[in-house]
Design goal:
The chain is mainly alpha-helical. The chain folds into two domains: 407 residues, Growth Hormone, Chain: A (Up-down Bundle), CATH 1.20.1250.20; 43 residues, no CATH class. Helix 9 packs antiparallel against helix 10, helix 20 crosses helix 22 and helix 22 runs antiparallel to helix 23. The termini are close together.
């Protein structure tokens, strides 16, 4: 039995990819790439969540003069942005004749105060965020395909430049619809940054680090919210805030000189020479034998990897790939609805917006760290499924505790906190799982398409929250049922723990066969192969 295990280990080492064979699973080079990609989560968070400070809750009232004070009866509008929308003149309903005034004690300027996005125009605030998320959605898939075709590095630098450029323009443009258009273009670049940075991070590492680094990569997103809250505290004018965030983001253009192209992608499309050059530098950085790179690379057949121009249709090239794509898209759609709807449901819990936004960035941190340990112990599928079940129980648990019975509703708050932990486990794990299920030649497009459905879910989430007008319990019931549905769908996908990353679409069939073989044998080889191996003495 021990010799059988030894033979299995030999086969696994033989099939180990060139990245792991030449530069190791994780070293100084991988740390540099992982850290640089993780730092990109800061601007990603800033632009996606800045609406909190660009359009904060604002009190307003009608401008008044002596005539209006004597002849108008102002009608109060209750809601998040509370104030007076209408007045009565001789029993005739009319809008505020002199415009509006705003409480600028905390926020000196916002898109609400600048463009009077109140009363009949208050939905334009939602339009600004929906258009942003729609842009992120398009960017996920557009730059995902471009990254697979033209390379990770070039696409990432283009996204960083466009993200900063349109961010600066959005902070200066004087028209509301001009602001919407520039933010939409910013969001497309932001969506590309999300996909490319994650894929580059995942493709750089190997072994057990492949399940650790892509999860830890998500942590700066929450901290980005906390940093933004601090910046917003000192920049109470929305234009100053947006300009500051955009200028800071522009420094990421320096990645042009610090980030190399993904050698895994170069090998996948047949650019062996360029890949070897990068791997030799990486081997030296990791203090490994750089001469071994060419030795290992020369064993690769130059005709094996020729999927040179990946297209979106390639995601449906085989039955197995189609199955993975469809199931992941449904999972990401529900995950997007659940994450953003629940965030909105518990988001308005404090009167100090700066403090609330700052601490919200730290809430997901324990769950993300916990995810690392759970996913290594139980694998991808089971970790995500258990997290979904935990989240669903929390949704229903909140409903089981009556409102206003306990001091400051502490049981509901605790249960909601556990729900956030569940989400902070499932989302990073789902990111990792998605990246591992797609081959290198279409990984950007696959991850981009999946995450695109998450953005669709984020646009649907306000509709789920609005169901509370029908019944206060309905939003949490819908979210709970959705989490349970996710649990069953995720179990239909193959486990990827311990499996090599597929490089081409053809590799998927090999991987699936290996998974099937694992059910009947101890390793990836058949029993006759073992018996024919003269290096094994089965009589011992």
């Amino acid at each position: 039995m021990s010799q059988l295990e030894s033979h299995c280990e030999h086969e696994e080492k033989h099939e180990e990819d060139i990245i792991q064979s030449t530069i190791g699973n994780f070293g100084r080079w991988q740390f540099k790439i992982s850290a640089l990609m993780a730092l990109l989560k800061f601007p990603i968070a800033w632009f996606q969540m800045s609406i909190v400070f660009l359009a904060p809750p604002t009190q307003f009232w009608c401008k008044s003069n002596e005539w209006s004070q004597q002849n108008h009866t102002f009608l109060r509008h209750e809601g998040l942005n509370s104030g007076f929308c209408h007045s009565l003149v001789n029993n005739t309903l009319t809008t505020c004749p002199n415009g509006y005034e705003y409480n600028k004690t905390v926020f000196h300027s916002s898109i609400i105060t600048e463009w009077n996005l109140v009363c009949e125009d208050k939905r334009l605030v939602d339009v600004s965020q929906i258009s942003l998320m729609f842009g992120v959605l398009l960017g996920n898939i557009l730059f995902g395909v471009i990254g697979d075709r033209h390379g990770r590095k070039k696409t990432l630098i283009v996204c960083i430049v466009l993200q900063s450029l349109f961010g600066i323009l959005a902070s200066q443009i004087p028209w509301y619809w001009g602001f919407i258009v520039t933010r939409f273009l910013l969001a497309i670049a932001n969506g590309g940054t999300i996909v490319i940075s994650f894929v580059m991070c995942m493709e750089a590492v190997g072994g057990t680090w492949r399940s650790i680094v892509p999860i830890l990569y998500q942590i700066p997103y929450g901290f980005g919210n906390s940093i933004m809250a601090g910046i917003a505290y000192f920049h109470r004018d929305w234009r100053d805030l947006h300009l500051t965030l955009s200028l800071i983001s522009s420094f990421y253009i320096l990645y042009l000189w610090f980030v190399p192209e993904s050698p895994r992608w170069l090998l996948a499309i047949g650019k062996k020479t360029e890949a070897i050059e990068i791997l030799e530098k990486a081997a030296k950085c990791n203090k490994m034998d750089s001469d071994n790179v060419k030795t290992v690379a020369n064993r690769l057949s130059p005709d094996v990897r020729k999927e040179n121009k990946p297209k979106l249709a390639a995601l449906f090239a085989t039955t197995e790939l189609t199955k993975r794509n469809v199931l992941l898209c449904i999972n990401w759609l529900i995950a997007g609805i659940t994450f953003y709807a629940f965030s909105q449901y518990i988001g308005k819990v404090g009167s100090n917006l700066y403090f609330t936004a700052a601490i919200s960035g730290f809430v997901a941190f324990p769950g993300t760290l916990l995810c690392v340990f759970i996913i290594r112990r139980f694998g991808r599928r089971l970790t995500i499924a258990l997290a979904h079940i935990l989240t669903a129980f929390c949704f229903f648990g909140i409903l089981a505790v009556p409102l206003g019975v306990y001091y400051q509703d502490w049981p509901r708050v605790v249960i909601a906190g556990v729900g956030i932990v569940g989400l902070s486990i499932s989302m990073p794990a789902l990111y990792l799982f998605t990246g591992e299920l797609f081959p290198t030649t279409v990984r950007n497009a696959g991850v981009g398409t999946s995450v695109m459905f998450s953005r669709m879910g984020s646009m649907i989430s306000p509709l789920v929250i609005s169901m509370q007008d029908i019944s206060p319990s309905l939003p949490l019931i819908v979210l709970g049922v959705g989490a349970i549905l996710e649990t069953f769908l995720i179990l239909l996908l193959p486990e990827t723990k311990g499996m090599p990353l597929p490089e081409t679409i053809d590799d998927l069939n090999v991987t699936v066969n290996k998974i099937d073989d694992r059910k009947d044998t101890m390793c990836y080889i058949s029993l006759p192969t073992i018996l024919k191996d003269t290096s094994l003495d089965i009589n011992k």
